[in-house]
Every structure is written in C-alpha cells, then in structure tokens.
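name: query_chain
kind: protein
chains: 1
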Amino acid sequence: MRMSAAEYRAGSAKPAKPRKYRNQPTMVDGIRFASKKEARMYVYLKALEREGEIVDLRLQPRYPLAVNGLHICTYVPDFDYFAGDRIVSEDVKGVKTPEFILKAKLFHAIYEREVQIV
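structure:
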C-alpha cells in the first residue's frame, strides 16, 4: 500500500513532549521569560526599583568567564541590579544543573561575588 506525502506527514507528527524541567515560558511587559517563576521575580524586582530600593535593573547581562586569558564560556544571570553600593546578580533556578554550579563557581572566582539563587 502506498501513502501520499501528506498522509505520511500527518501520521508521523509527534506529540509535543513536556519540557525537561517543566518550566512554562511567560510574557510580561512584552518580555519573554523562560519560566513563570522568573517572570514573577521580574515583577517583584520592578516594584523594588519603582520604590527606590534597588537601581539599574538589567535583564540577562553577559559576563565572559576567562582563565589565564582563555575564554571558557559566558555566564548570563537572569538579573543584575544595585542594592546600595553593591551589585547583585540573581539567577532563578528550579534545578541546579552541574553546568550552572560550575559557571557560578567560575563567576565567583573571577568577579569576586556570589550569584544569588532564587
């Protein structure tokens, strides 16, 4: 029995599998966040910024991680902001992956500050 191309495509369509960590992308203020939890944190930080408790909120700043002049990778936390006279980098995590743990350690060694995990 022969099958047309349209029949083949219709029969071979795979159902969407669930996301690995069950996160649900969410839009807030026209910005796409990887998860609902990250979107809620953004709303909270924007409120703190409006109240003057934090300043210069930045989304997904990029930090090159290099050792002895060799670029290893780039770390991208979810948020950066100033709280008083110190800069805070925050990452919203449901699961601490081995890759994240390594990048957080490199970030700490190079930039001499901890990543705050939410």
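note: The chain has a mean pLDDT of 90.
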